[in-house]
Amino acid sequence: MPMRIGDAMPPLDGATTWFNGSQEDVFEHAKGKPVLVHFWAVSCGICKEKMPALNELKKKYGALGMQTIAVHMPRYEADTDLDTVNEAMKANHIEETVAIDSLHKLKDAFQNEQGWVPVYYLFDSEGKLKTRAAGEFGIGVLTTALDKMFAAQAVGA
Questions:
Q1: CB 124 within 8 A of CB 146
Q2: Of 147, 104, 106, 156, which Cα lies nearest the Cα of 126?
Q3: Which CATH number fits domain 17-156: 3.30.200.20, 3.40.30.10, 3.40.50.720, 3.50.50.60?
Q4: Whole-number Cα distances in Å, 51 to 13, 20, 46, 97, 134
Q5: Which of 10-14, 27-31, 55-59, 104-108 has the lowest mean pLDDT?
Q6: What is the bridge-based pairing of β-strands 67-72 and 97-100?
Q7: What is the pTM of this model?
């Protein structure tokens, strides 16, 4: 069963490698802020196709305080090569902290049973799931949720 709206953000225990930071950095910077966790894979064509739109969202909402965490979830043996992952991060401008989920422990923690990539999990500033969206149309769903979340924050400010 997938995560439900209102579920707490799971811990990021079990990542086999970290790039651009550490698990400790993530929680230090994310406390009290909205957090976007996105799963991707080197071998995922939709991930590459949607990355420019995702990068625009990260830039726009990052300026408003949203923190982003990327989770690389290998789907094939070739996806586990860390040099290839690092090259893909550079090519796709993935500059946020990246957890490598070679053992699929994060996949399990986020209840991503189908192993979808891309999949986006948006948590509010209290660490509660606001939306989950996957696949080709995930960015559109995510954009709508972000617009609502940040409009509500502006009203509540």
A1: no
A2: 156
A3: 3.40.30.10
A4: 25, 18, 8, 15, 13
A5: 27-31
A6: parallel
A7: 0.94
